[in-house]
Design brief:
The chain is mainly alpha-helical. It has a domain of about 55 residues. It has 3 helices and no strands. It is flat, with a radius of gyration of 27 Å.
Amino acid sequence: MPSRIFTLPVALVLILLAGHVHADGRWRDLPPEERRELREQMREQWQSRREQESSRAPRGDGRGEALPPEERQRLRDEMREQQRQTPERGGRRHRY
């Protein structure tokens, strides 16, 4: 029984590795011009995705840079008020 449990994962890993090696071989078999063209198409696709993502929603680094300063201050004030109204748990105080 233990040999069956061990054999199945090993067989799956070997099959996956063989598939990966086979796929890499096909990439190498392409002429240099076609490889260059594929790389260029991939770059264009990645660039268009980045542009679509950046145009969808403004993104800061997670600290609220997309908000105007007045809105950030209002949110800070609301959070401080909520902290004052709720009892502290375990004596810990979180800084925001």
